[in-house]
Amino acid sequence: MTILVGSAMALRGAPQLRARKRSPNALAKEEVLEKLRKRIQQIKKKRPAYGEILEFYRKVKEAQVEVKASLKIDPIKLKKEWKELVSKEGFSLIQKEDFPVDIEASAKLFQALCQIGKDENPYMAERTRKIEEAVDNKKIDLKKLLKEGVKEQRIEQVADELGLDKKVFSFLIQSSIRPSIEAGMEQLRNEIDPETWLKGYCPVCGSLPSLSLLKEEVGKRYLLCSYCSYEWRIDRLFCPFCNNKDQESLHYVFAEGEEAHRIDLCDKCHQYIETIDYRKLEELDPVLEDLATLHLDILASQKGYKRPVPNPWTT
Ligand SMILES: [Zn+2]
Ligand SMILES: [Zn+2]
């Protein structure tokens, strides 16, 4: 595994690991960004090798937050019969491709992200420049592609045809539509009870979770959707990828001095999910926490466990 941006230095110096048996969010834009910057500073101080990738993350996030404030998203209409099926049959409310996307705003964001990419290290800059050239020369119909943004296969096909870096291209497309997707999810949030779904996939869009979160004093466990960022409740002892509930085959590891982050390993399907313990950390941006703990992903992979939803910031 290589880090998309940033040096391999980040992966060195992972602390000694110990294995153990497992035992409101409408802040104003500036406030969110301020907290994000502070948290990034904190992490950088503790783990300087992550500096470059965290700065990249900050710039991308700032551009996304900026766009989100002025998005124009069509209302998502749900049929009543369908809503009933959701709770009865376990269908998600909508499919990934049903999210309305503000194409103009996403295209603008794409441009901004290309600029950020070009200002980064040579690896990212070179690959981004090629992608931008293909868009400028009309070899890529960007707006059409943004509309189809969720179709990984389509992105790969275009990248193949034009000799572009698939991972970077997909990252740029997905990051450009993300504010729209999250705005769509926020429209649907109140249609579902996050406490009663209890399944391994997102009730809003059907995607797999990218992270798990522990909250409140009792440590209620939630999953975070990798696609729309919806959070829903889940049992503490549960593998979202194979529905395993057997205590003997579920365990977790964490790095010494970093008890707020751990990886939950399942010995039945040999897959894992990272868990962020918000009893030990102020709740802010789980994706940032994930990014700042790539050493845990390396560790899990060395132990032979797979991550079903790859971290989009690595390649
Ligand atoms: Zn979702
Ligand atoms: Zn499993």
Tell me what you see in this structure:
The N terminus is likely disordered. Helix 4 crosses helix 5. Strands 1-5-6-7-2-3-4 form a 7-stranded mixed sheet. It has 315 residues and is of the alpha+beta class. 42% of the residues lie in helices and 13% in strands. The protein starts with 16 loop residues before the first strand and ends in a 13-residue tail after the last helix. It contains 10 helices and 7 strands. A hairpin with a 5-residue loop joins strand 3 and strand 4. The longest helix has 23 residues. 35% of the residues are buried. The structure holds zinc ion (2 copies). One zinc ion binds next to loops.
Output the keywords.
seven-stranded mixed beta sheet; 10 helices; globular; disordered N terminus
> What's the Cα radius of gyration?
19 Å
Element-by-element helix/strand order: EHHHHHHHHEEEEEEHH
- Total DSSP helices: 10
What's the arrangement of strands in the largest beta sheet?
A: 1-5-6-7-2-3-4
Query: Structural class, from secondary structure content?
Result: alpha+beta
Helix content: 40-55%
Distance between the termini: 6 Å
- Main β sheet profile: 7 strands, mixed
Strand content: 5-15%
- Average pLDDT, rounded to a whole number, is 88
Unreliable sequence segments = 1-26
Overall strand count: 7
List all distinct small molecules, including ions and cofactors, that are bound in this structure. Answer: zinc ion
Bulk shape: globular
